[in-house]
User: Fold these one by one.
Assistant:
Number 1:
Amino acid sequence: MGTFVFQPALLALDDASSLECDGGTVSQGDSEDSVRDKCGNPQKVTQEGVDSPIIWFYNFGPSDFVSYVSFTNGIVERIQMGGYGN
């Protein structure tokens, strides 16, 4: 099995206004705790630099788009979608 290297800066991502999870809808302005309550723990968390946003990665499977939720100061700043998950 290959190694998954997470590099969101290299991916073509589309902005989204919200993210639908089993526990509810995530939108800009939601807190980290709110996102965790709605979507569960992310599969991966990354931050490119000290002053960069923290990015949570969600892969809900092959029938859904991979989601990237960016946080600044613990608040959702941006939601992006990539290709289909696995």
Number 2:
Amino acid sequence: MGWPDMEEVMLKRDFAKGPQLSAEKEAEAQRLAETLAATTQEDLLQITRLLMSKPDHELLGKTEFEVRDLVHQLGARAIETAVNQRKKGGTKGRA
């Protein structure tokens, strides 16, 4: 038995949609997205300002790593926000 064909795997999963959620979990996801949209605006501006400050020939290489670091910070903020929202009773279940 070999490895699955990557094209087949990619077609089976719709990355844009993400996992299917119950109505309750979808409502929680929408609330979290609204919170993150407000709290990450400055992070997104920092990323876009970095990109706009670079000429085309400097977008790859060092700039990629700078953007990656900023995206990781944004992801960490998203996780922190989700945990805090759950602690405040924003969701039911384990945090």
Number 3:
Amino acid sequence: MMFPEQGKCAYGGGGAAAAAIAIAEAIKASGSIVRVTSEVFQSIVQRNDKPLVVAAKSTFFKTSYSYLTSYRGFVFFAKSDEPLLFKSSAEIVEAKKIWIPS
């Protein structure tokens, strides 16, 4: 699967799945997620040489997009009404759903 706007395959192989699991485990271990605006999120992704972004599209009432990435030991979350675009070196993992505690 892929988000057409991003042009990146969502299933990049075992390494991508392992990295997504590592992010999930980091969230469980740390218990903290930093919520940021989509603009700040894109800025954080730009700072990474080879960023991993977990993305999910939701169509419950209206279409929205949720994103997770890690940077310097922190996990960052953003939600957007429009799909975000990332640099070509970003590895995008498409999740069915991203749930974070409120």
Number 4:
Amino acid sequence: MAANTTDTQTRSNGHPAPPAPQRPVGAPTSVTAPGHVPASAAPADGRPAAPAGTQPRRSATAGEAVLAYLRFQARTLASLEPSVRADEFDAVHQMRVATRRLRAALRSFGDVIPRPATGHLYGELQWLGRALGAARDGEVLAGHLRDSLRPTPPELLIGPVQARVQGHYAPRRAAARTDLLEVLDSPRYAALLAELDRVATGPAPGPRAGEPARDVLPAGVRRAFRQAQRRMRRAKHTRPGEARDVALHQARKSARRARYAAEAATPVIGKQARRFARQLKKVQSVLGDHQDSVLARQAARDLGISAHLAGENAFSYGLLHERESHRAERLQARARRVWRHAARPRYRRWMK
């Protein structure tokens, strides 16, 4: 299960951008930005300024709106590749988010771009997302554990706890980065970009692609929201423990999909869709923090076993585990409150 990467805050490292690497043979050029924009130079929402052809008119058809969103995310994905190769701060996360937004659009608007026409592309985006996730999640989880250890009194840190955390994750992150670079150099990745370029160029083949976007897209967002609603209800009635953790993780993925679908509809719907997406981002963030806590408990247990087998005292890892258990309980309660607020009818009236 993936670590939480909802937050898209960035920072500037002050270094000039490296030259763009050589594109594998067969990759498209139309989705690739002409110049490399470092991930650290992106705006606070994690997305670069919209290039031409990616902002539909309010009167756009459903096909025009969805294809514009796909083109925007495709160009974002391609433009971040040099930053990922250079290991710039937050680049892997932002590229991963672009793959998720693309998948959400493909899954949510089947009346515009039918799923059978994009099933292969969806699977390839999942493949790329897994490679990006492996490179990102170890870094996030190691940072989470270090942050949890920082306020711990020294007398409760028994043994080389910080060193063990670092030693556990550093080689894993290095191996994941090597694997990710192999993915970016592969013909399969080049083929993914080519297929994405073909789909985003259009035309949209769905039966409602030619209808006004304002009449079509809200239904796709509503379907995504209802799935999240069902999953939140299921999590609420699931027994505490691993089963509820899994249920909340599934609910988080549904909330994220509904949020991204609402973002895709925002250019033609306006502030109502934007407000709804903002509410679901809050839900996604809290559930992401909960998922981090779940993974941190698993990591604390694994690290404690390793410490014990090495003859070290495992007390500090048990302390970490207990602390994360209490944190997860608080986050579950908070998630229910945030969801109740986000699901209010006033945020959903625009979804016909």
